[in-house]
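Async update (no meeting this week)

Hi team, since we skipped the sync, here's where things stand on the single-chain job. The sequence we agreed to prioritize is pasted below, unchanged from the tracker. I ran it this morning and attached the output directly underneath so nobody has to dig for it. Comments welcome in thread, and please keep replies under the output.
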Amino acid sequence: MDERPALPTDPYAEAERRRAARALVRTPLLHADSHADELALVRRHQRELVPMFADGLGYRLVVEPSLARLVKTGLHPDATRGLRRRNGTPFTPRRYALLALVLAALTRSRRQVMVDELVAGVRSAAADAGVQVDLDGITDRRALHSALTALVDLGVLSERDGDLEHWAERHTESLLDVHRDRLAVLVAAPLAACETPEDVLAVPEVPSSAGGARIAVRRHLVERPVLSHEDLTEEQSGWWRRNREREREWFARWFGLELEIRAEGAVAVDRDGELTDLAFPGAGSARHFALLLLGELTEEVRRQERGDVAGGAWTPVAASTARSAADRVFRTWRRGLRKAHQADPDALWDEALAILGATGLVRDEGSTLHVHAAAARYAPRPELVTTAGPAGERSLFEEEA
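Output:
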Protein backbone atom coordinates (compact mmCIF):
# COMPACT_ATOMS: atom_id res chain seq x y z
CA MET A 1 0.00 0.00 0.00
CA ASP A 2 1.22 3.48 -0.78
CA GLU A 3 -0.91 5.26 1.83
CA ARG A 4 -0.37 5.84 5.52
CA PRO A 5 -2.75 4.20 8.01
CA ALA A 6 -6.22 5.69 7.98
CA LEU A 7 -6.78 8.58 10.32
CA PRO A 8 -9.37 8.16 13.08
CA THR A 9 -12.83 8.85 11.73
CA ASP A 10 -13.84 12.33 12.82
CA PRO A 11 -16.11 14.03 10.27
CA TYR A 12 -15.51 17.49 11.67
CA ALA A 13 -11.71 17.11 11.65
CA GLU A 14 -11.78 15.58 8.17
CA ALA A 15 -13.84 18.52 6.90
CA GLU A 16 -11.30 20.93 8.40
CA ARG A 17 -8.37 19.07 6.82
CA ARG A 18 -10.16 19.11 3.49
CA ARG A 19 -10.75 22.87 3.72
CA ALA A 20 -7.09 23.40 4.61
CA ALA A 21 -5.85 21.24 1.73
CA ARG A 22 -8.16 23.00 -0.73
CA ALA A 23 -6.97 26.38 0.51
CA LEU A 24 -3.33 25.43 -0.10
CA VAL A 25 -4.03 24.14 -3.60
CA ARG A 26 -5.98 27.30 -4.40
CA THR A 27 -3.47 29.69 -2.77
CA PRO A 28 -0.03 28.07 -2.29
CA LEU A 29 1.18 30.98 -0.15
CA LEU A 30 -1.14 31.63 2.79
CA HIS A 31 -0.27 34.40 5.23
CA ALA A 32 -1.85 35.86 8.32
CA ASP A 33 -2.76 39.24 6.80
CA SER A 34 -5.16 37.92 4.13
CA HIS A 35 -5.75 34.24 4.94
CA ALA A 36 -5.90 34.08 8.73
CA ASP A 37 -8.71 31.51 8.94
CA GLU A 38 -7.20 29.17 6.33
CA LEU A 39 -3.75 29.50 7.89
CA ALA A 40 -5.18 28.57 11.30
CA LEU A 41 -6.66 25.39 9.81
CA VAL A 42 -3.37 24.47 8.13
CA ARG A 43 -1.44 24.98 11.37
CA ARG A 44 -4.01 22.95 13.30
CA HIS A 45 -3.75 19.99 10.93
CA GLN A 46 -0.18 20.29 9.68
CA ARG A 47 0.76 16.93 11.22
CA GLU A 48 -1.53 15.19 8.72
CA LEU A 49 -1.20 17.65 5.82
CA VAL A 50 2.60 17.62 5.58
CA PRO A 51 2.89 13.84 4.94
CA MET A 52 -0.25 13.83 2.77
CA PHE A 53 1.19 16.41 0.35
CA ALA A 54 4.64 14.77 0.44
CA ASP A 55 3.49 11.17 -0.09
CA GLY A 56 0.38 11.87 -2.13
CA LEU A 57 1.54 14.66 -4.46
CA GLY A 58 5.28 15.03 -3.94
CA TYR A 59 4.85 18.61 -2.70
CA ARG A 60 6.68 20.16 0.25
CA LEU A 61 4.53 22.00 2.76
CA VAL A 62 6.29 24.66 4.85
CA VAL A 63 4.30 25.81 7.89
CA GLU A 64 5.47 28.72 10.03
CA PRO A 65 3.64 30.83 12.63
CA SER A 66 2.72 33.53 10.12
CA LEU A 67 2.55 31.63 6.82
CA ALA A 68 2.10 28.34 5.03
CA ARG A 69 3.77 27.66 1.67
CA LEU A 70 2.96 24.69 -0.57
CA VAL A 71 6.03 24.21 -2.75
CA LYS A 72 4.95 22.55 -5.99
CA THR A 73 8.18 21.69 -7.76
CA GLY A 74 8.46 19.12 -10.51
CA LEU A 75 5.42 20.25 -12.50
CA HIS A 76 5.73 20.39 -16.26
CA PRO A 77 5.98 23.91 -17.77
CA ASP A 78 2.55 25.25 -18.66
CA ALA A 79 2.43 28.56 -20.51
CA THR A 80 -1.32 28.93 -19.99
CA ARG A 81 -1.16 29.32 -16.21
CA GLY A 82 1.29 32.16 -15.69
CA LEU A 83 1.00 35.37 -13.71
CA ARG A 84 -1.50 37.96 -14.87
CA ARG A 85 -1.70 41.68 -14.44
CA ARG A 86 -4.58 43.16 -12.52
CA ASN A 87 -6.37 43.90 -15.80
CA GLY A 88 -6.27 40.19 -16.68
CA THR A 89 -3.58 40.27 -19.38
CA PRO A 90 -0.78 37.72 -19.02
CA PHE A 91 2.73 38.59 -17.95
CA THR A 92 5.16 39.12 -20.82
CA PRO A 93 8.74 37.78 -20.69
CA ARG A 94 9.88 41.33 -19.92
CA ARG A 95 7.60 41.51 -16.89
CA TYR A 96 8.93 38.18 -15.64
CA ALA A 97 12.48 39.50 -16.07
CA LEU A 98 11.66 42.61 -14.02
CA LEU A 99 9.97 40.43 -11.40
CA ALA A 100 13.14 38.35 -11.03
CA LEU A 101 15.21 41.52 -10.69
CA VAL A 102 12.84 42.89 -8.03
CA LEU A 103 13.18 39.66 -6.04
CA ALA A 104 16.96 39.93 -6.27
CA ALA A 105 16.85 43.55 -5.14
CA LEU A 106 14.53 42.75 -2.23
CA THR A 107 16.99 40.21 -0.81
CA ARG A 108 19.34 43.15 -0.17
CA SER A 109 16.77 45.74 0.90
CA ARG A 110 15.62 46.91 4.31
CA ARG A 111 12.29 45.85 5.79
CA GLN A 112 10.84 49.16 4.68
CA VAL A 113 11.85 50.67 1.37
CA MET A 114 10.80 53.58 -0.81
CA VAL A 115 9.96 52.65 -4.38
CA ASP A 116 12.76 54.84 -5.72
CA GLU A 117 15.23 53.01 -3.47
CA LEU A 118 13.92 49.72 -4.80
CA VAL A 119 14.33 50.99 -8.36
CA ALA A 120 17.98 51.67 -7.61
CA GLY A 121 18.30 48.13 -6.30
CA VAL A 122 16.72 46.78 -9.49
CA ARG A 123 19.20 48.74 -11.60
CA SER A 124 22.05 47.23 -9.57
CA ALA A 125 20.64 43.70 -9.86
CA ALA A 126 20.20 44.19 -13.61
CA ALA A 127 23.82 45.29 -13.96
CA ASP A 128 25.00 42.24 -12.00
CA ALA A 129 22.89 39.95 -14.23
CA GLY A 130 23.90 41.65 -17.47
CA VAL A 131 20.29 42.61 -18.25
CA GLN A 132 19.61 45.90 -20.01
CA VAL A 133 16.79 47.89 -18.41
CA ASP A 134 15.52 51.40 -19.01
CA LEU A 135 13.52 52.36 -15.94
CA ASP A 136 13.26 55.95 -17.16
CA GLY A 137 11.28 54.71 -20.16
CA ILE A 138 7.58 54.01 -19.79
CA THR A 139 7.75 50.43 -21.14
CA ASP A 140 10.10 49.09 -18.48
CA ARG A 141 8.48 51.27 -15.81
CA ARG A 142 5.15 49.63 -16.53
CA ALA A 143 6.76 46.19 -16.51
CA LEU A 144 8.35 46.96 -13.14
CA HIS A 145 5.02 48.26 -11.84
CA SER A 146 3.37 44.97 -12.83
CA ALA A 147 6.05 43.09 -10.90
CA LEU A 148 5.54 45.25 -7.81
CA THR A 149 1.75 44.93 -7.82
CA ALA A 150 2.06 41.16 -8.32
CA LEU A 151 4.22 40.96 -5.19
CA VAL A 152 1.70 43.10 -3.32
CA ASP A 153 -1.08 40.72 -4.36
CA LEU A 154 1.02 37.76 -3.20
CA GLY A 155 1.63 39.44 0.15
CA VAL A 156 5.40 39.75 -0.21
CA LEU A 157 5.07 43.55 -0.31
CA SER A 158 2.48 45.81 1.23
CA GLU A 159 2.05 49.53 0.76
CA ARG A 160 2.36 51.49 3.99
CA ASP A 161 2.01 54.96 2.49
CA GLY A 162 1.90 56.68 -0.87
CA ASP A 163 0.44 55.94 -4.30
CA LEU A 164 1.96 52.85 -5.88
CA GLU A 165 -1.00 52.48 -8.25
CA HIS A 166 0.04 55.48 -10.36
CA TRP A 167 3.81 55.21 -9.95
CA ALA A 168 4.58 54.23 -13.56
CA GLU A 169 2.80 57.16 -15.22
CA ARG A 170 2.91 59.88 -12.56
CA HIS A 171 6.17 59.10 -10.76
CA THR A 172 4.35 59.03 -7.43
CA GLU A 173 6.21 57.86 -4.35
CA SER A 174 5.35 54.94 -2.09
CA LEU A 175 6.68 53.38 1.09
CA LEU A 176 6.62 49.58 1.00
CA ASP A 177 6.88 47.00 3.76
CA VAL A 178 8.95 43.95 2.78
CA HIS A 179 7.73 40.73 4.39
CA ARG A 180 11.00 38.85 4.44
CA ASP A 181 9.55 35.60 5.75
CA ARG A 182 7.26 35.39 2.71
CA LEU A 183 10.02 36.47 0.36
CA ALA A 184 12.22 33.65 1.67
CA VAL A 185 9.72 30.93 0.66
CA LEU A 186 8.39 32.50 -2.54
CA VAL A 187 10.79 30.96 -5.07
CA ALA A 188 10.15 27.22 -5.26
CA ALA A 189 13.10 26.07 -7.35
CA PRO A 190 16.57 25.76 -5.74
CA LEU A 191 18.26 28.52 -7.71
CA ALA A 192 21.82 28.05 -6.44
CA ALA A 193 22.50 25.27 -8.95
CA CYS A 194 20.59 26.89 -11.84
CA GLU A 195 22.54 28.64 -14.59
CA THR A 196 19.90 28.83 -17.35
CA PRO A 197 16.11 29.23 -17.53
CA GLU A 198 15.91 25.59 -18.56
CA ASP A 199 17.60 24.60 -15.30
CA VAL A 200 14.88 26.38 -13.33
CA LEU A 201 12.12 24.56 -15.21
CA ALA A 202 13.84 21.18 -15.03
CA VAL A 203 13.47 20.71 -11.29
CA PRO A 204 13.60 16.91 -10.90
CA GLU A 205 10.41 14.93 -10.69
CA VAL A 206 9.92 12.58 -7.77
CA PRO A 207 11.75 9.32 -8.62
CA SER A 208 9.69 6.26 -9.49
CA SER A 209 10.83 4.47 -6.36
CA ALA A 210 9.03 7.16 -4.33
CA GLY A 211 5.76 6.65 -6.13
CA GLY A 212 6.45 8.52 -9.37
CA ALA A 213 3.48 7.12 -11.33
CA ARG A 214 1.03 7.69 -8.50
CA ILE A 215 2.27 11.21 -7.88
CA ALA A 216 2.31 12.17 -11.56
CA VAL A 217 -1.30 11.07 -12.11
CA ARG A 218 -2.57 12.72 -8.94
CA ARG A 219 -0.74 15.94 -9.74
CA HIS A 220 -2.29 15.96 -13.18
CA LEU A 221 -5.81 15.63 -11.80
CA VAL A 222 -5.27 18.25 -9.09
CA GLU A 223 -3.59 20.82 -11.33
CA ARG A 224 -5.21 20.06 -14.71
CA PRO A 225 -8.39 18.15 -13.95
CA VAL A 226 -8.85 16.47 -17.35
CA LEU A 227 -6.75 13.28 -17.53
CA SER A 228 -6.25 11.43 -20.82
CA HIS A 229 -4.80 7.94 -21.18
CA GLU A 230 -2.88 9.22 -24.20
CA ASP A 231 -0.95 11.68 -22.01
CA LEU A 232 0.28 8.99 -19.60
CA THR A 233 3.43 6.92 -19.80
CA GLU A 234 3.13 3.13 -19.80
CA GLU A 235 4.02 3.01 -16.10
CA GLN A 236 1.49 5.72 -15.22
CA SER A 237 -1.23 4.13 -17.34
CA GLY A 238 -0.72 0.76 -15.65
CA TRP A 239 -0.88 2.29 -12.20
CA TRP A 240 -4.04 4.20 -13.11
CA ARG A 241 -5.84 1.10 -14.40
CA ARG A 242 -5.06 -0.78 -11.20
CA ASN A 243 -5.94 1.99 -8.77
CA ARG A 244 -8.45 4.32 -10.38
CA GLU A 245 -11.45 3.11 -8.38
CA ARG A 246 -9.51 3.44 -5.14
CA GLU A 247 -8.49 6.97 -6.13
CA ARG A 248 -12.07 8.18 -5.95
CA GLU A 249 -11.96 7.93 -2.16
CA TRP A 250 -8.56 9.65 -1.88
CA PHE A 251 -9.58 12.69 -3.94
CA ALA A 252 -12.94 12.96 -2.19
CA ARG A 253 -11.41 12.62 1.27
CA TRP A 254 -8.60 15.12 0.93
CA PHE A 255 -9.90 17.64 -1.61
CA GLY A 256 -13.64 17.12 -1.97
CA LEU A 257 -13.21 16.31 -5.66
CA GLU A 258 -15.40 13.84 -7.51
CA LEU A 259 -13.64 11.65 -10.07
CA GLU A 260 -15.63 10.88 -13.19
CA ILE A 261 -13.89 7.90 -14.77
CA ARG A 262 -14.39 7.65 -18.52
CA ALA A 263 -13.13 5.46 -21.32
CA GLU A 264 -10.66 8.18 -22.36
CA GLY A 265 -9.42 8.93 -18.83
CA ALA A 266 -10.98 10.90 -16.00
CA VAL A 267 -12.23 14.32 -14.94
CA ALA A 268 -11.86 15.74 -11.42
CA VAL A 269 -15.00 17.75 -10.66
CA ASP A 270 -15.23 20.38 -7.94
CA ARG A 271 -18.92 20.89 -7.25
CA ASP A 272 -18.21 24.07 -5.30
CA GLY A 273 -16.25 25.63 -8.17
CA GLU A 274 -13.57 27.01 -5.83
CA LEU A 275 -10.38 25.27 -6.91
CA THR A 276 -10.12 26.45 -10.49
CA ASP A 277 -8.12 29.51 -11.45
CA LEU A 278 -9.93 29.63 -14.80
CA ALA A 279 -13.71 29.75 -14.80
CA PHE A 280 -15.27 28.44 -18.02
CA PRO A 281 -17.20 29.79 -19.72
CA GLY A 282 -17.35 32.77 -17.36
CA ALA A 283 -18.48 36.27 -18.25
CA GLY A 284 -17.84 38.15 -21.47
CA SER A 285 -18.72 37.70 -25.10
CA ALA A 286 -15.38 36.06 -26.00
CA ARG A 287 -16.01 33.29 -23.45
CA HIS A 288 -19.62 32.91 -24.55
CA PHE A 289 -18.45 32.68 -28.15
CA ALA A 290 -15.83 30.09 -27.15
CA LEU A 291 -18.54 28.00 -25.47
CA LEU A 292 -20.78 28.15 -28.55
CA LEU A 293 -17.84 27.32 -30.79
CA LEU A 294 -17.01 24.35 -28.57
CA GLY A 295 -20.54 23.06 -29.11
CA GLU A 296 -20.07 23.29 -32.88
CA LEU A 297 -16.71 21.53 -32.70
CA THR A 298 -18.25 18.75 -30.61
CA GLU A 299 -20.98 18.27 -33.21
CA GLU A 300 -18.34 18.15 -35.95
CA VAL A 301 -16.46 15.44 -34.04
CA ARG A 302 -19.67 13.46 -33.65
CA ARG A 303 -20.32 13.72 -37.37
CA GLN A 304 -16.81 12.47 -38.05
CA GLU A 305 -17.20 9.63 -35.57
CA ARG A 306 -20.83 8.98 -36.61
CA GLY A 307 -21.90 8.89 -33.00
CA ASP A 308 -20.92 10.31 -29.65
CA VAL A 309 -17.38 11.40 -28.98
CA ALA A 310 -15.58 8.18 -28.09
CA GLY A 311 -12.41 6.22 -28.62
CA GLY A 312 -9.27 8.33 -28.28
CA ALA A 313 -9.32 11.38 -26.07
CA TRP A 314 -8.31 13.76 -28.88
CA THR A 315 -10.03 14.02 -32.25
CA PRO A 316 -8.57 16.12 -35.08
CA VAL A 317 -10.68 18.73 -36.84
CA ALA A 318 -9.32 20.68 -39.79
CA ALA A 319 -8.71 24.32 -38.92
CA SER A 320 -10.67 25.39 -41.99
CA THR A 321 -13.66 23.35 -40.78
CA ALA A 322 -13.36 24.86 -37.32
CA ARG A 323 -13.20 28.36 -38.77
CA SER A 324 -16.33 27.68 -40.83
CA ALA A 325 -18.05 26.60 -37.63
CA ALA A 326 -16.88 29.82 -35.96
CA ASP A 327 -18.31 31.84 -38.85
CA ARG A 328 -21.68 30.15 -38.39
CA VAL A 329 -21.66 30.92 -34.69
CA PHE A 330 -20.68 34.51 -35.43
CA ARG A 331 -23.50 35.03 -37.91
CA THR A 332 -26.09 33.54 -35.56
CA TRP A 333 -25.02 35.25 -32.34
CA ARG A 334 -23.35 38.42 -33.58
CA ARG A 335 -25.87 40.74 -31.93
CA GLY A 336 -25.06 39.30 -28.52
CA LEU A 337 -21.34 40.11 -28.82
CA ARG A 338 -19.62 43.26 -27.68
CA LYS A 339 -19.08 45.89 -30.37
CA ALA A 340 -15.34 45.31 -30.66
CA HIS A 341 -15.96 41.61 -31.35
CA GLN A 342 -18.72 42.38 -33.84
CA ALA A 343 -16.28 44.57 -35.76
CA ASP A 344 -13.33 42.13 -35.70
CA PRO A 345 -14.30 38.44 -35.99
CA ASP A 346 -10.65 37.47 -36.58
CA ALA A 347 -9.64 38.84 -33.17
CA LEU A 348 -12.64 37.09 -31.62
CA TRP A 349 -11.55 33.78 -33.19
CA ASP A 350 -8.05 34.19 -31.76
CA GLU A 351 -9.43 35.01 -28.29
CA ALA A 352 -11.79 32.04 -28.35
CA LEU A 353 -9.00 29.64 -29.36
CA ALA A 354 -6.80 31.00 -26.57
CA ILE A 355 -9.59 30.45 -24.05
CA LEU A 356 -10.25 26.89 -25.23
CA GLY A 357 -6.54 26.15 -25.24
CA ALA A 358 -6.17 27.40 -21.66
CA THR A 359 -9.00 25.10 -20.54
CA GLY A 360 -7.23 22.10 -22.09
CA LEU A 361 -10.25 21.24 -24.24
CA VAL A 362 -8.74 22.22 -27.60
CA ARG A 363 -5.20 22.09 -28.95
CA ASP A 364 -4.31 24.42 -31.80
CA GLU A 365 -1.68 22.89 -34.06
CA GLY A 366 -1.95 25.27 -36.98
CA SER A 367 -3.73 23.50 -39.80
CA THR A 368 -5.49 21.16 -37.37
CA LEU A 369 -7.35 21.56 -34.10
CA HIS A 370 -7.62 18.64 -31.68
CA VAL A 371 -10.78 18.51 -29.61
CA HIS A 372 -10.82 16.62 -26.32
CA ALA A 373 -13.63 14.21 -25.52
CA ALA A 374 -14.37 16.21 -22.35
CA ALA A 375 -15.59 19.02 -24.60
CA ALA A 376 -18.88 17.15 -24.98
CA ARG A 377 -19.83 17.85 -21.35
CA TYR A 378 -19.75 21.59 -22.06
CA ALA A 379 -21.84 21.52 -25.26
CA PRO A 380 -24.48 24.24 -24.79
CA ARG A 381 -28.04 24.32 -26.04
CA PRO A 382 -28.48 28.01 -26.82
CA GLU A 383 -31.68 29.59 -28.01
CA LEU A 384 -32.94 32.98 -29.11
CA VAL A 385 -35.44 34.65 -26.84
CA THR A 386 -37.71 37.51 -27.80
CA THR A 387 -38.17 40.78 -26.02
CA ALA A 388 -40.80 43.50 -26.31
CA GLY A 389 -38.14 46.07 -27.11
CA PRO A 390 -37.50 47.47 -30.58
CA ALA A 391 -34.50 45.20 -31.09
CA GLY A 392 -36.84 42.25 -31.61
CA GLU A 393 -34.54 39.30 -30.94
CA ARG A 394 -31.58 39.30 -28.63
CA SER A 395 -28.95 36.79 -27.66
CA LEU A 396 -29.40 34.55 -24.66
CA PHE A 397 -25.92 35.76 -23.71
CA GLU A 398 -25.98 39.48 -23.15
CA GLU A 399 -22.75 41.32 -22.55
CA GLU A 400 -22.59 42.81 -19.11
CA ALA A 401 -22.55 46.58 -18.81
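Quick observations from my side:
The chain has four domains: 1-73, 80-186, 204-277, 285-394.
The CA atoms of residues 207 and 268 lie 25 Å apart.
Reply here if anything looks off.
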